[in-house]
Design brief:
11 helices, globular
Length: about 260
């Protein structure tokens, strides 16, 4: 892949959008590469956590490629929106946890890409925004839906209607990101968080993701029933037996084997 790079560090994969001269803007070919990368990550049973970031020092992803979008007709615009949404939904529903390490501009499609991840952390130089109404369009890669779910409809409407950007401290205040780090510390912080997650029982972690994501869409009684089923399923795993036996024997558990 030429525009989306993948690096593995133990059980952690780091994917980088690599168009720094274009501020990592998303065009059709980048979306195709990201789609293929997600398929590869899903098939690699050694990968327990995926970090997504941008190459260079200026941008995570500065948005979708306006040069590509500028001449689209309504049908082509709809198709481009579907293309991005299909890839972002694949990212969002990836069975393993995902972390967006936002290292600069995350505007439009970049903000939407970060919101398709489970966890967002950012540098103190990060800038977030949905500037689409200033360009005569709406957010097209899930921005109207995920932003309202993450920070509430009132704040989401303010950001989207106004097309105003916000800095890292404001993103933290409104709950768009979990933590802010000095720019030079962000990669290490993201890796440390990913390694902490990867060290826990991976079957249990994946079950927790499924319980949270699917449970939020269900009435409480059905959500609790889903949790009960996933809770019970963990008791058939070797990792559960090792984890609980280690606790009772007052020793550190052996590395979890994902089985």
């Amino acid at each position: 892949m030429a525009q989306v790079l993948l690096e593995k560090k133990g059980n952690v994969a780091i994917a980088s959008i690599d168009r720094p001269k274009a501020l990592n803007a998303l065009n059709s070919s980048v979306l195709d590469e990201l789609d293929a990368l997600l398929d590869a990550v899903c098939k690699d049973k050694e990968i327990r956590v995926l970090i997504l970031t941008g190459s260079g020092e200026k941008a995570f992803v500065a948005g979708a490629d306006i040069g590509e979008m500028s001449e689209l007709n309504p049908e082509e615009g709809t198709a481009f929106g579907k293309k991005g949404n299909d890839v972002f939904r694949k990212l969002e529903t990836l069975p393993i946890p995902t972390i967006a390490a936002v290292n600069g501009y995350a505007l439009g499609g970049g903000c939407e890409l970060s919101m398709a991840c489970d966890i967002r952390i950012c540098s103190d130089t990060a800038v977030f925004g949905q500037p689409e109404t200033g360009l005569g369009i709406t957010p097209g890669f899930g921005g109207t839906q995920r932003l309202a779910r993450l920070i509430g409809p009132g704040m989401a409407k303010q950001l989207i209607y106004s097309a105003k950007n916000i800095k890292a401290d404001e993103a933290l205040r409104i709950g768009l990101v979990n933590a802010v780090y000095p720019a030079e510390e962000l990669p290490a912080a993201a890796l440390k968080l990913a390694e902490t997650i990867a060290a826990n029982a991976p079957i249990a972690v994946r079950a927790c993701k499924k319980a949270i994501d699917e449970g939020l869409e269900l009435p409480m009684d059905e959500a609790i029933a889903l949790e009960e089923t996933l809770f019970g399923s963990c008791f058939g795993t070797e990792d559960q037996k090792e984890g609980m036996h280690a606790f009772l024997e007052k020793r550190r558990h052996e590395p979890y084997q994902n089985r």
